[in-house]
Amino acid sequence: MKILFTASESVPFIKTGGLADVVGALAPVLAKEGHDVRVVIPLFSAIPKEWVDKMEHVTDFEVQLGWRRQYCGIEALKKDGVTWYFIDNKFYFGRPYVYGMGGDEYERFGFFCRSVLNMLPLIDFQPDVIHAHDWQSGMVPALLKIQYAHLPFYAGIKTLFTIHNLQYQGIFGIREVQDVLGLGDSLWTDDKLECYGCANFMKAALVYSDLITTVSPSYSEEIQTAYYGERLDGLLRARKHELFGVLNGIDMADYNPATDKNIAANYSPEDLAGKAACKKALQESLGLEVRSDVPIIGMVGRLSNQKGLDLVDYIIADIMRQDVQLVVLGMGEGRYFNLFSWAEGEYKGRVAARFTMDHALAHQIYAGCDLFLMPSQFEPCGLSQMIAMRYGTLPIVRETGGLRDTVLSYNEDTGDGNGFSFFNYNAHDMLHTIERAIGYYKQEPETWKLLQHRGMTGDYSWDHSAGEYLRLYEKLFEEKQPLEEKDEEPNPVVVDI
Ligand code: ADP
Known about the structure:
The protein has 497 residues and is α/β, with parallel strands linked by helices. The protein has 20 helices and 18 strands.
């Protein structure tokens, strides 16, 4: 099969979150299965020079965006059996940020989506499937259906759209988007592009994609409810027969404590001695008291409300009343920067916080900590809890989305479980779960070792999920069953808003 991924980020080139990990890991796994897999992302200025130097110029052309004509260069490199394309335009992507600070995101990513479609005949690649990821690519399926599908080159291309986070939708003024993408007035009704009076790139994808997936089975159910649905739950319920949850994996080679070059000592499920060395090195490098008997709780991730940090804010004094250390690595909202900066001063030698994007330090935290805290308000999949388990660091999570699908709270009656969890979004439930986990750390080392071993030997590879994606790609070309056709309403997309 010929598959084109379109996304705003991918490791190893550019990463702000889990989307990059998913794109960068899944594409090579599919390529290894013998498929022709190509990925296209913007050529952001933050992509390191070492990669830019490896790129070759494929072609360039001009893209019409309303009254504008913009240069579009296509650069490419081959890696791990995948061809990676980079959309080059310095005006849009040569800025000192990846997302958000200018008010012209609709133009930047409108340009990106249009360029992706326009480049295909010029690079002589006619994909069977375009697999678009998150709102930045949301206009690809929409433009394809609305403006390109009548052309023979594009007519047979099917689309699958993956929601990595429904909270970020790409919401803009209709006039602005029309000005860039030229989508006529008749398209701005609530069964097509209009969304609560605005343009919405995510909604456009949810309406026009042939299939929709999201990154865990639980999240695919949750987003059909008003609580998690971010005002698109009605649309998602209407398309529930084309909506699937496919759990993310992690890059098992990159995140492997037995071979990881970022950490102080390597270790394996059979011999955890190196983990103690990693803990000592982490304490030393972050200025924490060097003690082997104190449990360290780690947190790595975006400092946003989504990650449940208001719960931590609420009871940080109670957490720190325990004999624990806390390590935080993340970037994001100022209020959490303030919280953890304050905590670092207040609990000297017991709390360390770093506010950068630091791949090596993230690995050192996964390896050096004993517990990993992820009390998310919602979590489409979450990679950090899986990475933590792979490093023998037990997760404490709230039972939501992918956290619910990957972490099973230890049950002392049955002996089942691989971590600790709580259900209600409640700070004291979280506190009690932390206390419970610390209790096992201090008093039941055998149980602790068992849970570590289970976590480290879990299968978080992409193999299973890649197979599920392939099945969905094939489904795109299946004949519709007559029964389904009978069931179908004249317009299957009915938004109950
Ligand atoms: P999300 O996609 O919601 O940000 P995920 O748990 O799915 O969260 O993925 C986050 C990924 O980004 C993980 O690989 C995590 O280790 C990494 N990460 C997040 N923040 C940082 C940071 N400040 N430095 C290094 N890695 C980070």
